Amino acid sequence: MPSFTRGIGLNLLFAAGICVAWAWFSAAPSSPTGRYHFSIQTNIPGWRFESVPLPDTVKKNLATQNLFNGIYRGPSGERVAVFVGQWDANNAEGLSVVEHTPDICWLGGGWKPISLGQPQQSSFMISGRDIPFQVRSFCPPAGRDYELTVWCTVVNGQLFEEIKQYETTDLPHDDFRLQSAEIARRIRAAHFLSTIRYRTQASGEKQFIRFSIPADASWDQSVERLRAFSCKWLTLGNR
Fold it and tell me: Do 28 and 201 form a contact (C-beta atoms < 8 A)?
């Protein structure tokens, strides 16, 4: 009898947990009135776009064919690398979109995070709205040139807030593969906590916007160049 009673109690606790989770994600809070959706301008006056096809293995890993990847060349030789991914509600795999940020993907590809003194986040004015973009600097696997990149993620029409990024103190190991795997675990755990904290539902459309340039000696000049480019390349509307 005690084991039977204990089994009933465990089942009731499990059912209560499901009800609480449903109420947390579905009953509150009310949905925001505005829904964000980025559109890109492929033809920018004075700029030439070069498409860079992605391997089928990458497309499979990203779980979408709706990808835009390439390089813009400016009138004075500027180079801006761009990437846009979009996931419809019927083909998105949960919140896997947030696992393809440079903090995880680039580190997994051998890129090393560096600090140029840049902030973790900076606001870009797009279509009259301040949009927070994540800001990072990396050193590629081969070569000495640094790359400064910015990105943002939209989930269900709302900007996804990243609450954990890598820090230089997060790199305790000599083996960089071990370092990147450890950082990825921490960031994924933080993303999971963020979805709970902000009641982020995994259903619905998702977008990921990233663009980058060779980093100047002064990080703020690089960010300003990307900020000026974003006004030409991106527009923002409601869906």
Answer: no
Q: Which of 101, 113, 80, 119 is nearest to 209 (CA)?
A: 101
Could you list the residue range(s) of the whole structural domain that residue 24 is in?
1-30
Q: Is there a contact between 235 and 38 (Cβ–Cβ < 8 Å)?
A: yes
Structure confidence by residue, pLDDT tens digits, 10-29: 545 544 444 444 444 455 44
Structure tokens at 222: 């690089």
Report the domain count for the chain: 2
Q: Which tokens belong to 167?
A: 């820090």
> DSSP characters for 140-158?
-SSSS--EEEEEEEEETTE
pLDDT in tens, 37-85: 999 998 999 999 999 999 988 888 887 888 999 999 999 999 999 999 9
Does one domain contain both 12 and 49?
no
Q: Are residues 16 and 56 in the same domain?
A: no
